[in-house]
Amino acid sequence: MNPLNSFRVALRAILRNKLRSFLTTLGIVIGVGAVIAMMAIGAGAKAQVEQAFAAMGTNVLIVLPGSTSAGGVRGGFGSMATLTWDDLDAIRTEVATVKRAAPSLRASLPVVSEDQNWTTSVTGTSPEYFDIRTWPIALGTAFTQSDVDGGAKVIVLGQTVVDKLYGPNANPVGQTVRVGSTPFQVVGVVAKKGQSATGQDYDDAAFIPFSTFAQKVQGGLGKFLQGQVMVEATGADTTTRAQQDITALLRDRHHLARGADDDFSIRNLSEIADARQQGTQTMTLLLASVAAVSLLVGGIGIMNIMLVSVTERTREIGIRMAVGAEPHHILTQFLIEALALSLAGGLIGVAGGIGAATWLANRFQWPVLLQPDVIGVSVGFSALVGVAFGIYPARKASRLDPIEALRFE
Amino acid sequence: MGEPVIDLTDVTKVYPTGDVSLRALDGVTLRVGEGEFVAIMGSSGSGKSTLMNIVGCLDRPTGGTYILAGRRVSGMSRAELARVRNRVVGFVFQQFNLLSRTSALENVELPLEYAGVAGRARRKRATDALQRVGLGQRLHHHPNQLSGGQQQRVAIARAIVNDPKVILADEPTGALDSRTSVDVMAIFQGLWRTGITVVLVTHEPDIAEFASRVVTMKDGRLLSDVRQEPRAAAPAAGEPSS
Ligand SMILES: Nc1ncnc2c1ncn2[C@@H]1O[C@H](COP(=O)(O)OP(=O)(O)OP(=O)(O)O)[C@@H](O)[C@H]1O
Ligand SMILES: [Mg+2]
Question: What's the complex ipTM?
């Protein structure tokens, strides 16, 4: 008996009891549907987080002034100036695991073109900043080290600022904008980067040399660096090492006694990303167990209904045996029926899961990512459940005695 | 009488019912040669069905030996017995035993499916078999759309579709009226005349008249064994009414 024919017979048997078959597969439908939907949501969230962190730059550490144990009295990070310009030089030159470092002095300032005016986040920094954040220049160039050394009044604009001041797709390179009352020449525009994980627009920003920033915004370049330091480690595997090295270096430079709190803090972005991913992993594990339980319940449901089916169709089995069905024919027939049931459940579950994920994506603007491999594995798993739980009823059917099966009322 | 197709020697069947075991067959020795048409008669409970089920490889004897078409049946595996049922014998039941909600054609195709005959050839052979029993116009009817006589003819078509050596029928006319019974007997006689060995069980003496040999049973033993000139049934011309 060829498989196609067996499948047709199985399908007919299933369709003969449509409601019963559907209810039987419900366990698998729910299991598979839940897995598909949740995995899509999980993967979407993970991808969003990853994208957001990638936008910050890879292997990036941020050194902030102020203590981690900062209470109300001492103020938050960055509120106290404890980092010096010499600290920055030391980080850059004395730590082997550091590839680049750049200051980041920030203020929210109005940027004014000839006829428009837009308040944006203005950062005073050095040219390395764009490399650390892997942020290419789309038009013109970044400012140079000599611009920094000379305190040049040059500015690099983010896309959003360009849009607001000059309109979309304009090329403002060579134009003059005023920051506060100081005129700056636009030398470049950074490529569009999009939004952060918290919805902040990365492109709503402008960059000027830190020397100029200190002079014009902070009232002069003093001993202390009134901002943060962005650090890029030499690689993904050295990021944690770099964090330790910088901590040791700064504690030494700040003459902190053993046991005293750091008067700075270091944020490790890859660590945060890892923590987020671990959260996702926990959720995935949880989902896997939910899926396992529903598939188990679904499997038991299938076994139950197959046992009922074998009993109901004892006479049919007897007839088939009487005309020459061998035990393996009967076994295959019922196995295929169980398989068809569970596969149908799996496929309905996939459809439902995709539907649910799409609905959530539209309704709540959640990022969802449908993964073909998850769908494949779920369908495969439901098929496996069908075979595993179908084997006992199918064996039972195949071992029936022909004459007793024929006599069965 | 040619070679023995059915060769039973001292066959017993014992049912363990409660304390006393019941000897449904008590040492039956019977040889049926190729091309015979045997009617088995006997009172109710004499062991006719028990014997037929053993001859048809649906059941196993408790003791004795059974050789079917030169092959020893006792000791065959379940799968081997299934192949014998599929290829060597065709069984017709009193209650037709057709698959419900399945067309006449598909019912007749069933033995061929298990024999591994594929698609077009299978369909052709099943159609031919149904035409031989005069049901060429009812291929796609389901059993519940057919009369008793028509259902029994579908069952006969199913029994002959795989060209068996022997046709076995346990009271094939038991559920039919006398007119329809004669039509069905005409079909059996027609098959017999083409060389197939036929063994059937019946209660009715006028049905047994169609056979070439009548075996009578009593209490699990053979009581008599008589050869006779078979009465000719009107050959089933075209599509007999039923
Ligand atoms: N499965 C069984 N278990 C126990 N006893 C059985 C079984 N099958 C048949 N018998 C007994 O075996 C004996 C022979 O039964 P069998 O069915 O062969 O009779 P029969 O000649 O076909 O009768 P009938 O003409 O009524 O069909 C009977 O006494 C019956 O009760
Ligand atoms: Mg009987």
Answer: 0.94
